[in-house]
Amino acid sequence: MVKSGLLAGALLYSVAAIANTTSLTSQVTALWQSGDYQAARQLLADKVSKKTKDAELLALLGQTEALLSNNEQAEQWLEKAVKFDDNHADYQHWYATVSCKLASSASMFSALGYAKRCKKAYETALELAPENPRSYIALGSFLAQAPAIAGGDKDEALQLAEKLKQLDETQGWLLQLKVADIADDAAFDQFLAGAELLKARPEPYFQRAMQLASQENYIAAITLLQQAIQQTAVDDEAKASRNESHYQLARCAVLGKTAVTEGIAAMQYYLQENPASERYDWAQLRLAQLYLLANSTEKAKAITEPLLASTSDDKLKAELKKLL
């Protein structure tokens, strides 16, 4: 009877613990969705320590740190999460993503290590969730963009794009767009002719515009960015592409000293829609540069003087001083 009572008590405790974790997960997820990442971290702070072995708690804190752009801390927590539970696709995906972010800013030697971990975790996430388009998109994007020495493979990325089309044709074409070798306008037109689903989306116009901007063909780039902006944002990816198109249109207007009026309108829109952007101050700099090109000196000063006084970014300060 005593053993039965102990067993029943243990079971009740386990059920209660699972219920508490599930409730906590729901709370954290709700805070993520509302963008209140600091509150999510505070909610988890006293529940997670270096001794924690609960993979879910570790993963929740790791992803929260990632959303706060604290990538090193995020990687440490998520590495522990996949150590204690390597059969969870979300944990693998989050771990891979933060490893990729660290690779992009690390030294060459460290970057290769992060990139290998990123690729391996994305591959594991795909194995665990072969029905989830996200898994194909993440791994395919890595393969398309990473150099061969870090595990990149465009042929493999194209194969994933074809498989993804069977699950989500639009996402499959978007992945293929990342891999496509679009060398000139003829190649771009040929790609769009085959990718009928992308013609009404902003992504292809944005990608081609960025290629032209890298060649300092700013007028042609701006024309394509205007096309991107005109497309309907039917999902989050399209919205993000349209959003970035506004920023890049203004940047091209500054660099090319052309389409100044359009550039001002684009950057005003970007600033209004993205008050929490990490590059909000740089966006303000671009707007000030455009005002100067439009001979609106007072409007430029209204931005540059308070921004110079408030920013701690030395590079931004140097650029602002050039305008004074």
Automatic annotation (TrEMBL):
UniProt entry keywords in alphabetical sequence: Signal
Upper taxonomic lineage: Bacteria, Pseudomonadati, Pseudomonadota, Gammaproteobacteria, Chromatiales
Keyword presence, Signal: yes
Pfam family for this entry, one: TPR_19
TM spans (from-to): none
Name this protein carries in UniProt: TPR repeat
Range of residues in the leader sequence: 1-19
Gene3D superfamilies on file: Tetratricopeptide repeat domain
